[in-house]
Write a structure and sequence with these properties.
Layout: H1 23-36, H2 43-55, E1 60-64, H3 67-77, E2 85-89, H4 95-102, E3 106-110, H5 121-127, E4 132-135, H6 147-157, E5 162-164, E6 172-173, E7 176-177, E8 184-188, E9 202-206, H7 209-219, E10 223-224, E11 227-228, H8 239-248, H9 252-270, E12 284-285, E13 291-294, H10 298-307, H11 337-345, E14 346-349, H12 357-376
Helix pairs in contact: 1-8, 2-8, 3-4, 3-7, 9-12, 10-12
Length: 401
C-alpha cells in the first residue's frame, strides 16, 4: 500500500506523551495523594500493586523505584549472587545486564531469533551450566520472548525465569499476559514506556509468595514486620508515582490497541519497500513499545529521515557485550551474529498512542523517499554499529532506554 500523495505535515515526533495523557484524572490523583500527605508507602502504592498484579494474572506485585531496581530486586530475591551466572541476551538496554552484575552474578549472553528479536530457547538451553542461577529473557520492543518454552527450560533445570518486561506492558502469549509465564516479571514505568510514570518507577510481579516477601524486604532496607532481616536497599516507589500509574492504568488497553493499529498501518504502507518489518509469532500479542525495522544502510537512512523531519531513533546501537564494562563476560560459543546484525541495522520509527494516520503516512512517504536516496548513492560499505563510546555524550538519535 502506497501512502496517499499529500503534502507532508512537517516534523513527526518520535513520541508525544502529552497527546493521550488524561490530565484531569492525573491532576485529581496527584491532588488526592498530596492531600493525604503519606508520600512513602501511601495508600496509592498498595492500590496500584493490587491492580497491576491482577492485570498480569499474578498473585503479587512489588512496586519499586525503577525498572532497573525491580530487576535487581527480583534477581536477589531468587538467590542470584557472587559466583552465579544468569543467562540473558545482549540485544537489550544495558540495565538488564547491569542488574545481573550488581547482584555479583555474571551475565551470560545468548543469541536472538532474527525474526522476533528475542532470546532463542535453544541458545538459552546451550548456555546453562552448573552455575546458572537465573534465566533473564527480554521481551524486546514489546514482543514476548517465547515465555512458555523458556518457562519449560527453567522448570527442567530448576532455574527461575526472571523476565525483563520493561517493553511489554499489555503484551500477551496465547491470550494470557506474557508476564504470567515467568517466575518473576519486571516492568519499568519510565515516562516513555507503554505505561509511564512522571519519573522513574518500576515493579515486579510473581505468583511466588516467598519471592514477593523477600523482594518487599529488599526494597525497604531489608525490613520485614519491623525487623531488619537482610541488607537491603532503598528501592521503594513513592506514592505520587503510584498515584499517576493508578490513574493511567485503565487506559492501557486502549493505548495498546492504538499502538497495534499504527503498527498495522505501517505494515500496509511499507511492506513492499524491502525493509525488514517486525515479525509477530502466531502466539504473540505484540505491545509495540517500539516499531523497529531493519536496513543494511541504517545510518544513512536515519540521516535522510532526519533531513525530512522524521524523528527516528536507534534501539540499541551497541550490543551489551560490546560495551566496555561487559567485555569479560561469556557469550555463546559461536558468538552472537543475529544480535550484531540487529545492532547494525535496527531503526525505530515514530509510534505512540496519539500518532495520527496523517503522521504515519508522512513517515511512510519519507521512508520511501529516503530509501530511494540511499539506494541511488554510490555503493559503499553497509552501516555498522560504531565503537563503544558509552562514556561520551550520545547523539540525540540514540535512545536511553
Amino acid at each position: 500500500m502506497t501512502p496517499p500523495d499529500t503534502p507532508p505535515s512537517g516534523r513527526v515526533p518520535f513520541n508525544d506523551l502529552r497527546r493521550t495523557a488524561p490530565m484531569d484524572t492525573l491532576r485529581a490523583a496527584v491532588d488526592e495523594a498530596v492531600t493525604e500527605g503519606d508520600f512513602i508507602h501511601g495508600r496509592a502504592v498498595g492500590d496500584f500493586e493490587r491492580r497491576f498484579a491482577a492485570r498480569n494474572a499474578a498473585a503479587h506485585c512489588v512496586a519499586t523505584s525503577s525498572g532497573t531496581s525491580a530487576l535487581q530486586c527480583a534477581l536477589a530475591a531468587v538467590g542470584c549472587g557472587p559466583g552465579d551466572e544468569a543467562v540473558t541476551v545482549s540485544a537489550t538496554f544495558v540495565a538488564t545486564a547491569a542488574a545481573i552484575a550488581h547482584t555479583g552474578a555474571a551475565p551470560v549472553f545468548a543469541d536472538i531469533d532474527p525474526a522476533t528479536r528475542t532470546a532463542r530457547p535453544d541458545q538459552v538451553r546451550a548456555a546453562i551450566t552448573a552455575r546458572t542461577r537465573a534465566i533473564v529473557p527480554v521481551h524486546l520492543y514489546g514482543h514476548p520472548a517465547d515465555p512458555r518454552e523458556l518457562a519449560a527450560i527453567g522448570a527442567e533445570h530448576g532455574i527461575p525465569v526472571v523476565a525483563d518486561a520493561s517493553h511489554a506492558h499489555g503484551a500477551t502469549w496465547e491470550g494470557r499476559p506474557a508476564a504470567a509465564y515467568a517466575d518473576v516479571s519486571c516492568f519499568s514505568f519510565y515516562p516513555s514506556k507503554n505505561l509511564g510514570a512522571f519519573g522513574d518507577a518500576g515493579a515486579l510481579v510473581t505468583d511466588h509468595a516467598d519471592i514477593a516477601r523477600r523482594a518487599r524486604a529488599l526494597r525497604d532496607h531489608g525490613r520485614e514486620d519491623g525487623e531488619t532481616v537482610a541488607i537491603g536497599h532503598n528501592w521503594r516507589m513513592d506514592t505520587l508515582q503510584a498515584a499517576v500509574l493508578g490513574a493511567k492504568l485503565p487506559y492501557l488497553d486502549q493505548w495498546t490497541e492504538a499502538r497495534r493499529r499504527a503498527a498495522a498501518r505501517y505494515r500496509q504502507l511499507l511492506e513492499d519497500t524491502g525493509l525488514a518489518l517486525p515479525a509477530v509469532a502466531a502466539e504473540a500479542g505484540h505491545a509495540y513499545h517500539l516499531y523497529v525495522v531493519r536496513h543494511p544502510r541504517r545510518d544513512a537512512l536515519l540521516a535522510e529521515l532526519a533531513r525530512r523531519g522524521i524523528d527516528a531513533r536507534v534501539h540499541y546501537p551497541h550490543p551489551v557485550h560490546r560495551l566496555r564494562p561487559f567485555h569479560g563476560f561469556r557469550t555463546a560459543p559461536k558468538g552472537l551474529p543475529e544480535t550484531e546484525t540487529l545492532a547494525r541495522q535496527c531503526l525505530s520509527l515514530p509510534l505512540f498512542p496519539g500518532i495520527t494516520d496523517e503522521e504515519t503516512d508522512t513517515v511512510a512517504r519519507a521512508v520511501r523517499a529516503a530509501l530511494r536516496t540511499v539506494g541511488e548513492r554510490a555503493a559503499g560499505p553497509a552501516d555498522g554499529a560504531a565503537p563503544d563510546r558509552s562514556h561520551h555524550h550520545r547523539p540525540p538519535e540514540t535512545a536511553r532506554n
